[in-house]
Please model this.
Amino acid sequence: MTKTIRLTAAQALVRYLTAQLTEEGEPFIAGVWAIFGHGNVAGLGEALYASREALQTYRGHNEQTMAHAAIAYAKQLGRKRAMAVTTSIGPGATNMVTAAAVAHVNRLPVLLIPGDVFASRAPDPVLQQIEDFEDGTISANDCFKPVSRYFDRITRPEQLLTALPRAFRTMTDPADCGPVTLAFCQDVQAEAYDYPESFFQQKVWRARRIRPDEVELASAVAALRAAKRPVIVAGGGVHHSGAAAALRAFSEAHNIPVTETQAGKSALPWDHALNLGPIGVTGGEPANKVCSEADLVLGVGTRFQDFTTGSWGLFRHPGRRLISLNVAAYDAAKHGAEPLLSDALKGLEELSTALGAHKFDAPAKDLKADWFGKVDPLTDAPADGNQLPTDMQVVGAVQRSANAETVVMCAGGTMPGELHKLWKSGKPGSYHMEYGFSCMGYEIAGAMGIKMAEPGRDVICFTGDGTYMMANSEMATAAMMKICFTVVVTDNRGFGCINRLQMGTGGAEFNNLLDHAVHETPSAIDFAAHAGAMGATSIKVSSIAELEKALAKRHSVKGPYVIVIDTDPYPSTPYGGTWWEVAIPEVSGRKEVREKRAAYEAAVRERNSE
Model:
């Protein structure tokens, strides 16, 4: 006879979470972020309290940003562990949709548990319920469907017996990995069921390593042997697979240069002879030059996003072949690529074995020397101490202060482009960029998540004033928890990155920088005072020299440390980059727009003719 234990559905969910382990014997779910409301406080809240010794619950200040912290945690650990996030129904749940999209785009595991309406429907419409006038099964949580890798609505307690194993299979599967949403009806959370005791036995989830198909492997090897100038595009999958060493060995064995996407950066040390650095729109001249001439492009764990491919205008060789080594069939077949469906580590190893002693001509040595000769001076401290610093100079100051354990992180806005081009990454995992979804607001919460994942690392977060204003509340969480990381706030008085794009597409400066927006009272936000009010140690500096002095003190600070510096919103690195397709209006009263439209049409024709 099957032994059972009577638990509420919420209690069963929590008990199941605590029993799921990694290969190293650690709990796969490292903790639960929670903001309680009427949709989860009575059911799931009570269950989490009862299990608080076995499963830590963390209190956030915003549903989106506490989910960002969970996502950054999983990303920094290479998807080996994850966190859960629970919210009430209504706005608490929908606040989390943006974070779900971040996890989905970046293929990162997170377990989202928003409260939901009553399965019984007896008290409908309940507080915060979204009513669909034509479909009684719809709730606000249906917003999660397009941004979840697996979605389920728990309307009966026994549904957990199938939903939870599916959830963990998704989060631990290299190909399907991504956010899981379990919309948990609030009355069901409190309902009891006789669950089999065997359901709660400990289970180890092992990351599957898919080996290449023999036919696809042979085809890729034949293509490589026939190539004269191949190049590797290293994406985030290299880090997810733990394949940095395999990539290095493959590159060195066959003399193939490596370029790095935003997600792939730090796969090889910046000074490795075969690491030609950043690729694409925010890329450098060495990588983009070799890619434009390559007759074979081998993508390893990359989605081939438009910033990587220059909107597919970067790879210009007329006979160019594209091979995509990827664990996900969806990504492996993109843009007519020849797929090599495989785990990155195993795929590189087997490719190398099949290639044997085959070597290619090494890239010209002067490519990197010329590049750094151009950009290194941009990161030097200004000779004139009264000059308003540039973002490049701020990057240089942080770089000079960094050490082997530094993790530099950022997300959407100005700094991703500068960091991709200029930051000199050391070992794998030292560069953490959310640029899959380019989500402003990820930074502060993400820095907290990184530090929680790797407490021994020196975490430095770049954020602009615009992003800081979007999402700063987890600064208070980090201060309360004494989580130590450094935030460098570059205050350029607005959205400097998009202002430059506006100008670059022929538009007038409008509604991006605060000085160009309609305000009766000029903005004068004291970011250092604001951060200090939330419990951070903070300081405003007025020069690069003062910034470097402030950075030197960061290791003695307990809790978050915020350094604010005013910067010039206009300059950016003038070297590198490639075309990016941004549609320009066909009709405009501005001469500048009409000229940019003509250039845009010419670029599209050139891209489409290749």
Remarks:
- The chain has a mean pLDDT of 96.
- Residues 370-566 form a domain with the Rossmann fold fold (CATH 3.40.50.970).
- Residues 278 and 420 are 6 Å apart (CA to CA).
